[in-house]
């Protein structure tokens, strides 16, 4: 997790809002491939996250969350030839 900002701190409500990049990595051998000369990783769009296994991660005691979306989902996915997946999403959370 890479925290961008912490704001809206409320002593009365005992909560705060944070903006951050939520990053995860794992290895899925089903996604491994033979590397081509000069190409050892694939960079794919957010739509691929709906077609591959992704960890079901959650934040305990979270009150609300949203994933930032401008015109497209703000998600970065890199798949290395050995099946290592790196996923980064821009999020906002109220805790």
What this model shows, in words?
The protein has one domain (22-89). Helix content is 0%, strand content 49%. It is built from no helices and six strands. Strands 1, 2, 3, 4, 5 and 6 form a six-stranded antiparallel β-sheet that branches. A hairpin with a 3-residue loop joins strand 5 and strand 6 (84-94).
According to DSSP, the number of beta strands is 6
The major sheet is characterized as: 6 strands, antiparallel
Distance between the termini: 15 Å
Radius of gyration: 16 Å
Helix fraction bin: under 10%
Q: Quickly count the domains.
A: 1
Q: In terms of structural class, how would the helical and strand content be classed?
A: mainly beta
Low-confidence stretches: none
Domain Neurotransmitter-gated ion-channel ligand-binding: 1-94
InterPro entries: Neur_chan_lig-bd (IPR006202), Neur_chan_lig-bd_sf (IPR036734), Neur_channel (IPR006201)
GO molecular function, one term: extracellular ligand-gated monoatomic ion channel activity
Pfam family, one: Neur_chan_LBD
